[in-house]
# Entry
Amino acid sequence: MAKKEEKKDVLENPEVLQEKIANVEGWFENNPKVAIGIAAAIILVIGGFFGYRYYKSNQDDLAQSEMFQAIRYFEADSLNLALNGDGNNLGFLQIIEDYSGTKAGNLANYYAGSIYLKQGKFPLAIFHLEDFSSNDLLVQARAFSLIGDAYMEQDNFESAVKYYNKAASHKPNKEFTPTYLMKAALAYEKLNQNDKAKAAYQTIIDKFWESSEYQNARKFKARLETNS
# Structure
């Protein structure tokens, strides 16, 4: 209560406020070295923060420029050139190493993981795709699904279904979510967890009846019910 009264006095009484200011000014006059040190530290922290942001922005712009050719190689299915570069242009692996912490470096992990998956190097695919993160509606879910694919290829069906479910639950949409649910259902079937597989198919039937997976979901669910 005493503290509240003191605050009220400071706010409402100009003389009290003036006294407080005088005390602060007196402390600064009596401790000039400490005051200068505090001011310098504040300036250093603020300058460092904005300097770091400026540096990161420049690094990201440079990395985006460096990655342009690697993306073109990826789109042309020249996967080794995309991954390792051509001697003049950087590949995704070098971009990851040189521009760690940038948006471009993060995206390079997605491309590298996708390439390793295509090349059948599944542990490396998982490593890079798990290092990738995005708030994008589609790309993050796609990365989860690709990790699931890598685990499926290694017959690790439990991990596969985990990532397929993560893909399906990440900002669900009628274009891609049904595909991820179909993959999850297949992984459940591999685990002999047919009830969970049927539940995944049923989700497609109930919520995504306009999708291209609707008929397949009905057919595969009916097969499981017939064989049970």
Observations:
- The first helix runs from residue 2 to 12.
